[in-house]
Design brief:
157 residues; alpha+beta; Glutaredoxin; seven-stranded mixed beta sheet; two-stranded antiparallel sheet; 5 helices; 9 strands; 29% strand
Length: 157
């Protein structure tokens, strides 16, 4: 799938989430949605990213923004990850990778010369109309949640 760009309509999805139930993007119409895709629960970078987004939860809420982390891990894994690190962000499970593929973040990667498929750390900020307003590709975790918050706050200015 071609990479999604600013101005594109964000692909809808319904995914199981931590704590039970599901989340559907179209049901969040009227709110901003910060959708961050990450490779794996409880790994160093992913843990820092989830903790950073959780630490800013009240500010995201004040900016009319729902934060959703998506990875191919199971809901059970998400529940353990959230409990272990007292995470307050919603974590959605995309085990069949349909949403990862729809957003173009399921990519060939390589480590130590070996090629494999995995999640490229990417964040999309989606406006209340369901259109993508910002895209961060190949995210570096340090300071990222703050950047996303500032962009979300700018949407409400």
């Amino acid at each position: 799938m071609a990479d999604l760009l600013v101005g594109d309509k964000a692909p809808d999805f319904t995914l199981s989430k931590n704590g039970a139930g599901t989340v559907t993007l179209s049901a969040l119409s009227g709110k901003n949605v910060a959708l961050y895709f990450y490779p794996k629960d409880d790994t160093s970078g992913c843990t820092v990213e989830a903790i950073d987004f959780s630490a800013l939860a009240t500010q995201f809420e004040a900016a009319n923004t729902v934060v959703i982390g998506i990875s191919p891990d199971s809901v059970k894994s998400h529940d353990k990850f959230a409990a272990k690190h007292a995470l307050t962000v919603m974590l959605a499970s995309d085990e069949d990778k349909a949403t990862l593929e729809a957003y173009g973040v399921w990519k060939e990667k390589s480590m130590y010369g070996k090629k494999y498929m995995g999640v490229e750390r990417t964040t999309f900020l989606i406006g209340p109309d369901g259109k993508i307003t910002h895209v961060w590709n190949k995210v570096k975790v340090a300071g990222h949640a703050q950047q996303v918050l500032e962009a979300a706050q700018g949407l409400n200015a």
